[in-house]
Structures are given as C-alpha cells and as structure tokens.
Write a structure and sequence with these properties.
alpha/beta, five-stranded mixed sheet, 3 helices, 200 residues
Length: 200
C-alpha cells in the first residue's frame, strides 16, 4: 500500500479545493487517489497540479493509453479511450492517478510534454499503440512499431496476427510488406490424465 505524508482523504479534499469545478470525479481506493478530469480541462489541471503549493506534483512517473471497448464484456457504455497519468510530488511525498476519458471519434488531447518533459516518449507510445493524438507534441511519431506499420496494436479490435508481415528482399535490397500469411487456428490444450502426475 502507498505511504503518504498526508492522509489520502485530506489530499483528496486539497485536490478538490485546488482544481474546483475541473474535477469530474475524485475518490480514494486502496489508499490511492483517483482523479478524473474532462479533456478540455486537462492541460489547465496539469499545470495546477504541478504549480499549486499544496500539490507540487513535479514528477510524471507514467502516462499510458487505455481502450475500454471490451471492458465489462462489452456492457461498458462510457468513452472508449482514456489517458492515465501517475503523478508524484517528491516535495510533499504524495501521489495521484489522473485519468481523462476520450471519445472514439476524436481521441485527441493536448500534450503535457511542456509541463512534464518525461511525457514526451510516453505520449509517443500511447499514439503508436492506441492512436491517441497529443496536440502540440513536438515530435509525435511512432516509437515502438515500424514507420510503415498500419494500425495501432493495443486497440482491442486490432487482430492478433496484424495486417501485414515484412521481410527483407535480397533482390530488391529493401524491406517488403505483404498481407499476413498466418492461418488463424484454435489450439486445444493437452490434458494430462495420469493419476500420479506430479507425485513422487
């Protein structure tokens, strides 16, 4: 469990006071504070969380994308995408998880790379894996997949085998892309029925 310099409930009240009507939802679960902000308030809230004397979240530990399209076995009716940030105040020894939901139609959000420089590569990864656009990012391009890669591999609707495969063609002296030749198949696990299996 996370150790706080202040009581999580007290920090929750402080965050609610600092951010005011920008807070869409705030709760404490398992000793951790979860804060939800609307996309249009995201950049302003990030600056307040960093600069407010009662917050001082000077460090972005992590930023990731989430695809909720298969959440709760398809019964979930909220926004498809989210961006989740883990923030740390070294000065005040406190943490907060900040979450912003984004629509499927336009998963766009402002970059926070000028608020926390560590966001740069995290945002590139979320763009590469989920297709989330971070507006104003200084160098928003793929970071984990090939530049010619088609699609975003951590989206729930992306096929496990992908769309294309590549290989180096010795005659053409370049990389060639072609449709995937992998045949999808179902694998049935082997069942061991020995009575004394695992016993000496």
């Amino acid at each position: 469990m996370t150790t706080f310099a202040v009581n999580p409930e007290k920090l929750k009240d402080t965050l609610a006071q600092v951010l005011g009507d920008k807070v869409k939802r705030i709760d404490v679960a398992l000793g951790e504070i979860n804060l939800v902000i609307d996309a249009e308030d995201y950049l302003a809230a990030a600056l307040m969380l960093r600069d407010s004397p009662d917050c001082r979240f000077e460090m972005l530990l992590d930023l990731c994308g989430v695809d909720y399209s298969a959440y709760q076995e398809g019964r979930y009716e909220g926004h498809r995408y989210a961006v989740v940030l883990q923030l740390l105040s070294v000065t005040l020894n406190q943490r907060v998880r900040l979450k912003v939901y984004l629509s499927e139609d336009a998963p766009n959000i402002p970059t926070v790379s000028e608020v926390w420089s560590s966001a740069n590569w995290y945002e590139r990864e979320a763009f590469d894996m989920y297709g989330i656009i971070f507006e104003g990012h200084p160098d928003l391009r793929r970071i984990l997949t090939d530049y010619g890669f088609v699609g975003h591999p951590l989206r729930k609707d992306f096929p496990t085998s992908g769309y294309v495969e590549m290989h180096y063609d010795e005659l053409q002296k370049r990389v060639i892309y072609k449709p995937v030749s992998i045949e999808p198949r179902e694998i049935t696990p082997r069942i061991i029925r020995e009575e004394n299996y695992g016993r000496n």
